[in-house]
Amino acid sequence: MRHCISFLIVLTALALGGCASNPVSGKKDFVMMSEPQEIALGRSADAEIRKQYKVYANPALQSYVNRVGQKLAEHSHRPGIHYTFTVLDSPEINAFALPGGYVYITRGILAYLNSEAEMAAVLGHEIGHVTARHGVRQQSAAQAANIGISIASIFVPQLNTQAGQDLSNLLGGALLSGYGRDHELESDRLGAQYLAHTEYDPQAMIRVVGVLKNQELFDAEIAKQEGREPRRYHGTFASHPDNDTRLQQVVGEAAHLSVAAPKENKAEFLKQTDGLVFNDSVEEGVVRSNRFMHPDLGIALTFPSEWSVKNSPTQLVALSPKVDAAMQLKIDPKPTGTAIEYARRALGKDATVEALEIEKLHAAIASAGNALLGIVYFDRKAFLIQGNAKTAESMKAQREAMKSTIRSFHILSDAEKNAIKPLAIKLTSAKQGDTYAKLAQHSPLGKNAESYLRLINAQYPQGEPAAGQTLKVIE
Ligand SMILES: [Zn+2]
User: Fold this and answer.
1) Given Cys at both, which of 193, 201, 254, 440 links 450, Cβ 3.0 to 4.6 Å?
2) Which residues contact 399 (CB under 8 A, 6 or more apart)?
3) Among 448, 343, 315, 451, which residue's Cα sits nearest to residue 406?
4) Which residues of 304-328 are buried (b: 16+ CB within 10 A; e: fewer)?
5) HSE-CB of 442 using CA atoms within 13 angstroms
6) Ligand 1 geometric centre to CA of 180 (Å)
């Protein structure tokens, strides 16, 4: 799991401590932090995490995750500290821990897990980072090298801007590189022990690594469609293949601790995650059958059905089937001049500009070379729908598709806003003859529905449902 290291923010607040003995090894660590300092560090970093993420608003699920987490923590090397387990309202596939016992798991990763034992494996791994004091050892190394403090003080003021965010992620990653493979394997080993102590199968750890590996394979599949490099977003897990012999070894060490009939609790886990929000939250706008709807902005935009549309909190981008053309939505919060003037300014005086009226709004379409720009004035903002093509030929082929997207600009009514619901997991029972291809036809997930359905049901890349099997679908 990628480890968010937002706690570099509070580095400056720390005084230096002395050597402390490690709760796992019992040996003296080169750690400049006492346990109270560690807990104070965790507490203030936790406040930062809660500002950056929302806590997922489902008390029943929160208490279920907390129950499983507390059980594991009780049987860990540091049962004495106070642990918290929090589900974050994020579609990211992630889990992380802060020093002092603060453990987070996203709703994004929960969607891809299929039993309580697998969730316990994720939590157990994170508890391992806490008990072995990896975060603290990391911090101490940074302090010793005298880099952490200057990084924190230089970049913290920019944290709220996107650039500052990217920078801090980058620096977080650099600081984090010391977590590395050895600490990750140590966490897997500890997590496997904690699983065995609480009567789960330690092998669940290896299954979770497989779940994350499948995410990487899936992203490679999408990256190929989109003509981009695959993301390597499980930085630490990338060095962590499920057939890795060291991983098999460290998890295997827990085998002698495990009980004869370990609990899987698949049905209970699935019941708890029935209704779980999947992918985007409504606040970021949703895409349904290539129609983008954003309740806060109050607008909708419909992209051509064969294009692939990607919505993230920071941008909305659509790509043509051959990836030779793209469209993007941008917003100018303080536009000046008329839509026509705006268009000329943006694309130059040689641009062809036509005025347009869309739902009684002032609008314009401008084109120049392989670029097309739609401008719609609404709610004192300029909505800019920008189209670009790689070649004159692909521009010619996609021009009408781009124009019809611009003309599809729509002001949402209150009834339409209220009808926007997030996608959610729904449990169903597979019928005779069900295939993922068939289920995908009725799915709102769009182009890659078949792969998504296989992934959430742990049958990626080739599996098919068996009649009577409990299935997760997305509605
Ligand atoms: Zn880890």
Assistant:
1) 440
2) 367, 372
3) 343
4) beebbbebeeeebbbbbeeebbbbe
5) 8
6) 9
Q: Helix, strand, or coil here: 33?
A: coil
What distance in angstroms lies between residue 96's CA and the mean position of ligand 1's atoms? Answer: 7
Q: What is the distance in A from the centroid of ligand 1 to the CA of 126? A: 6
Pair of tokens at residue 340: 């026509």
Residue 463 alpha carbon to ligand 1 centre in Å: 28
The answer to whether 142 touches 205, Cβ cutoff 8 Å, is no
Backbone angles phi, psi at 328, to 5 degrees: -145, 140
> CA angle, 441 as apex, 435 and 444 as ends, to 5°?
120
Give me ligand 1 centre to Cα 237, in Å. Answer: 8
DSSP element (H, E) containing 169: helix 162-176
CB-CB neighbours of 139 under 10 Å: 27
Global confidence as pTM: 0.78
- Say if residues 290 and 303 touch (Cβ distance below 8 Å): yes
Please give the distance, rounded to the nearest whole angstrom, from the Cα atom of residue 125 to the centre of ligand 1.
6
Element (H, E) at 355: strand 352-358
Long-range residue pairs from 324-327, CB within 8 A, at least 24 positions apart, any chain? 324/389, 324/390, 324/391, 324/394, 324/398, 325/387, 325/388, 325/389, 325/390, 325/394, 325/395, 325/397, 325/398, 325/402, 326/387, 326/388, 327/303, 327/385, 327/386, 327/387, 327/388, 327/402, 327/405
For residue 173, the CA-to-ligand 1 centroid distance in Å is 13
Cα–Cα distance for residue pair 289/303, rounded to 1 Å = 9
Residue 352 has a CB neighbour count (10 Å cut-off) of: 11
Sequential pLDDT tens for the chain (475 residues): 444 333 333 333 333 334 567 787 777 665 667 889 888 888 888 887 787 778 999 999 999 999 999 999 999 999 999 999 999 998 888 888 888 899 999 999 999 999 999 999 999 999 998 999 887 766 555 444 433 322 222 222 222 333 333 333 333 333 333 356 778 888 899 999 999 999 999 999 999 988 888 888 898 888 887 777 776 544 444 445 545 788 888 889 999 998 889 999 999 999 999 999 998 888 888 888 889 999 999 999 999 988 988 887 667 889 888 888 999 998 888 999 999 999 999 888 889 999 999 999 999 999 999 999 999 999 999 999 999 998 999 999 999 999 999 999 999 999 999 999 999 999 999 999 999 999 999 888 877 899 999 999 999 999 999 999 999 999 9
Type of residue numbered 37 = Q
Q: What angle do CA 89, 95, 100 make, to 5 degrees?
A: 105
Q: Give the chain's domains with CATH numbers.
A: 6-273 (no CATH), 290-415 (3.40.1000.10), 422-474 (3.10.350)
Ligand 1 centroid, distance to 3 Cα (angstroms): 7
